[in-house]
Amino acid sequence: MALRFEELDWQATPMGDLFLRRRVEPTLGVDVYEVKLGDEYLMSSLFTEAEEQLAHLGLAATTGRDASVLVGGLGLGYTAVAALAHDSVGSMTVVDALPAVIDWHARGLLPVSATLTSDPRTTLVLDDFFAVMRRGPETRYDAILVDIDHSPRHQLDPSHADLYTADGLRRLARHLRDDGVFALWSDDPPDDEFLSVAATVFPSTAAHVIAFANPLTGGTSTNTVYVAR
Question: Considering the entire predicted model, what is its pTM?
């Protein structure tokens, strides 16, 4: 059991101060890892179901084996590790714009870090995922899984907004192989406007509501996973 509260890392970033902390959740008596950027809480190890379903739903829609996967956003690592649980994954590249986040996993600070970094299929890349999508594709992927912004409407940085337009999604689609899959995590309920935009680019689009127990409220919370093919 960790101390009641422990700050594992703090670093200044262009988007604000980034904190990684570990604390004991008193209602459950378990260690919880949390990431905060500026005044916003980005993620918690208490709630990983939807992040894992992002990988499972996205990869379930792929065809064949030896899939090449691109993950946008490393975070606590739960989406990436869930992807590695699929035997069909032949290689996985994880892109994150924050050196600190990659460093956390390199130093083994998080519960899934060892699983992630020891798997030979994993490559961690320091880059701006949104800038990568604007470039011409050097590699095409069977699946692109994205968990960076709060939702298509609520971005961490204004420079991310163009991804969620029709032109932005077309640029992303250039990085996919034929029948490739784009999957996106969102903290908001399904957004009909975003689905309509995605449908102009992808022949098949769907929004999956992921419900999970919230031990802090004693109720149920939901996230959304969009899957487009």
Answer: 0.94
